Amino acid sequence: MSEFSPETIRPETIRPALDSIRARIATAAQGRAVTLIAVSKTKPVAAIEAALAAGQLVFGENRVQEAAAKFPLLRAAHPGLALHLIGPLQTNKAREAVALFDCIDSLDRPKLADALAAAAERAGRMPRLLVQVNVGDEPQKAGVSLAEADGFIRAMRARFGERLRGLMAIPPLGEDPAPHFRTLVAMADTHGLPVRSIGMSDDFETAIACGATEVRVGSALFGARHAPQ
Ligand SMILES: *Cc1c(COP(=O)(O)O)cnc(C)c1O
What we know:
The protein has helices at 14-29, 45-53, 64-77, 94-100, 110-123, 146-160, 178-191, 204-210, 219-222, and strands spanning 35-39, 58-61, 82-85, 103-107, 128-134, 144-145, 164-168, 195-197, 214-217. By secondary structure, the protein is an alpha/beta fold. The chain has a single domain (11-220), classed as TIM Barrel (Alpha-Beta Barrel). Mean pLDDT is 94; it is low at 1-6. The structure holds pyridoxal-5'-phosphate. Pyridoxal-5'-phosphate (PLP) binds next to strand 9 and helix 9. One of its GO terms (molecular function) is pyridoxal phosphate binding.
């Protein structure tokens, strides 16, 4: 797995980091349930195993190929493991993604919905889905645009029913994320969707204060990523 991490992972640092993140989540959540997604992209299997040993069962990866290389054996050893795809998905990888992930958090266009529906039919299994919203309306960024979001979410709800669980967003870098988090949460409220996946290492407490139900934490848990993502 050397291609995933040029730096040395020290598994013994992962348990204390996890404990500290859990404590911060609990404080921010004030009794609400918030799921921690441990983002293990670029990190080796040893790091994921250390997190599993510390009781972490929910993981996020942003690339299908990398997840396919790292997770099947871990899954066999840990039946409770849940894996999220948090990165953009190409339609030609939909079949593999449907087989591999429990949750696909980056549904953002009709062609991908078609590919996922076809893949799910063949596989006899459909992961849980989140619509990714481009809350900052940034050009080149994944996610459905704000202008198209309501129509797209309604269409996905009609198509996938209860498999569509909620919304995901990544606010623009270098801006106050709170207004963007609130936009996402308001949209989820409007559509009656329970899951709001917002917040990363630098802003997960803010996201929880704004109504996050899932936070995606990578570097604060596993250390900085040196490899390009
Ligand atoms: C990498 C990534 C994260 C985690 O980022 P950190 O800042 O390392 O916590 C969260 N969400 C998505 C979509 C990512 O690609």
